[in-house]
Amino acid sequence: MKFLEFIIFIIVAAVSIRFVIWFYNRTELLIRIYSLKSECNAKITLLSFPYRPMWLAPKGGDIKVEILDTVYFIRIYSGGGAAASVHFANEEYSAVFTRLAGAKKSPKGTGSSSLAMSAGINLSARVIHLAPLQIPEGDSTLQGKKVVRVLILNPAPGVLSYVTEEKTSIKIAFTGDEMHGMLVFTSSTFTAYADRMKREEERQRAEGENMDYADFSYFNE
Questions:
Q1: pLDDT digits (tens, 9 = 90+) for 2-18
Q2: Which residues face 71 on adjacent strands?
Q3: What is the structure's pLDDT at 58?
Q4: pLDDT band at 138 (very low <50, low <70, confident <90, very high)
Q5: What's the CA gap between 11 and 159, in Å, rounded?
Q6: Class of residue 210 by CB neighbours under 10 A (exposed 0-12, middle 13-18, buried 19+)
Q7: CA atoms within 13 A on the CB side of 65
Q8: Which sign does the torsion angle of CA 9, 12, 18, 24 carry?
């Protein structure tokens, strides 16, 4: 009887620790996203409850981020952490594999922003069905704006692979890559990307204003 109680205790402890880690990662994601309000003067809109189970993902995404003339529609995907691998067959169907060995960074990537293939044994698989990430129709705030669909891995898996649109091969995705019409990021790499794109947009605006106010009087001489 004591042995059975010990096994139950181990199971409960493991599940509790996993939940705490997941909750911490999700909270850290929200903190990073909301940091864009002060750093980039972004407008943040929660489209769903951020701590919901992944299978309850809404069609319109989880978070809407507006920065200058760019609007990001973000879907949060629980990738299982470094000891897991994720494979997307298409935008709707994916699978999370629990691996025996942790993932290693690929030399092709750039430090912690890489999601890379590594040796390991898959112990279990969980198939995930998500409705395609759709942009809401009739949203007046999107007029004249650039709309970007984003998939944020939280927590990020050690391996992210996907079947190409042509269905002829399987590729490994790295943060910043486009996969099935969505840009793939972790929480930290997305905020860095959004900040960089904001600066680039400001630079383009400044160059446009300089052209508008340039002196072209010599053309009339």
A1: 777 778 878 888 778 88
A2: 66, 147
A3: 80
A4: confident
A5: 26
A6: exposed
A7: 30
A8: negative
- Residue 8 CA to residue 161 CA, distance in Å, equals 35
User: Per residue in 89-118, pLDDT tens?
Assistant: 999 999 998 866 544 444 444 333 434 444
Positions of E strands within 137-219 = 146-153, 159-163, 170-172, 178-179, 182-185
pLDDT at 195: 94
Q: What is the pLDDT of residue 80?
A: 84
Cβ-contact 74, 65 below 8 angstroms: yes
User: Is the backbone of residue 161 left (phi > 0), alpha (psi -120 to 50) or beta?
Assistant: beta
Find the radius of gyration of the CA atoms of the chain.
21
Respond yes or no on whether the N-terminal peptide bond of residue 155 is cis (omega within 30° of 0): yes
Cα 144 to Cα 141: distance, rounded to the nearest angstrom: 8
Let me know: does 61 contact 75? Beta carbons within 8 Å: yes
Angle at the Cα of 32 from the Cα atoms of 31 and 38, rounded to 5 degrees: 90
